[in-house]
């Protein structure tokens, strides 16, 4: 299942969500983007590095779209049933991986609706973290003024942006360390929104690896047109 490369990595894509903010009947990962589905672009971008030995995609139990997709050649793509939240889907994928991967192998968790990942950013992430004791994630420093809102959507205060970063994906951690951190969070009823949060909760300090602003996550209708523009560049 593995491909050549000194560092062995595995991809995980949680794709069980409905993407209700898009306001479409079809889940956002299956919307058309530049002649293919969003998820097909995402898979291709993640599989671009030869150190990715395989990819596990967590799907919704009622998924009817996956069978029509064309996964990228040259890397095995497996599927598992996801869960109610992102953390459950990722955990299910990690449990599947544990049967064929080593505990110290790296896992790169990437959003299903983040199809514009630059190959150079993926390479930089793996190269930077290959010898790191913890792992980390792609991220971009905050440039805009940040406001905190109250319950009435009025400004409650201005947040100092120094030291703030926008978290992106992939997020890259050792298989066993990430699985242990996620299992602990889920057992405690803490629904972490990304893998770095689970690792932080376990006492680790993930490394921030500078990414690119065009590695956007498609969340709202206008994001689809922007992603199409980025893919043409």
Q: What are its keywords?
A:
233 residues; alpha/beta; Spore Coat Polysaccharide Biosynthesis Protein SpsA, Chain A; seven-stranded mixed β-sheet; two-stranded antiparallel ribbon; 6 helices; 25% strand
Describe the structure.
By secondary structure, this protein is of the alpha/beta class. It has one domain: Spore Coat Polysaccharide Biosynthesis Protein SpsA, Chain A. 27% of the residues lie in helices and 25% in strands. It has 6 helices and 11 strands. The strands form 3 sheets. The protein has a 7-stranded mixed sheet, with helices on both faces. Helix 2 packs across helix 4 (175-187). It is globular, with a radius of gyration of 17 Å. The two termini are 32 Å apart. The model has no long low-confidence stretch (mean pLDDT 94).
**Helix count, DSSP H or I runs of 4 or more residues:** 6
The CATH architecture is: Alpha-Beta Complex
Give the oligomeric state of the chains in this entry, treating copies of one chain as homo and distinct chains as hetero: single chain
Order of helices and strands: EEEHEEHEHEEEEHHEH
For the residues shown, what is the average pLDDT? 94
Decide which structural class fits the backbone. alpha/beta
Distance between the termini: 32 Å
CATH first level: which class? Alpha Beta
- Annotated CATH homologous superfamily: Spore Coat Polysaccharide Biosynthesis Protein SpsA, Chain A
- What would the principal axes of the Cα set say about the shape? globular
Task: Count all strands and give the number.
Answer: 11
Radius of gyration: 17 Å
Side-by-side strand order of the widest sheet: 5-4-1-6-10-7-11
Helix content: 25-40%
Determine the CATH topology.
Answer: Spore Coat Polysaccharide Biosynthesis Protein SpsA, Chain A
Query: What fraction strand?
Result: 25-35%
- Give the biggest beta sheet: 7 strands, mixed
Q: Into how many domains do the coordinates divide?
A: 1
Question: What are the low-pLDDT stretches, counting only 5+ consecutive residues below 50?
Answer: none
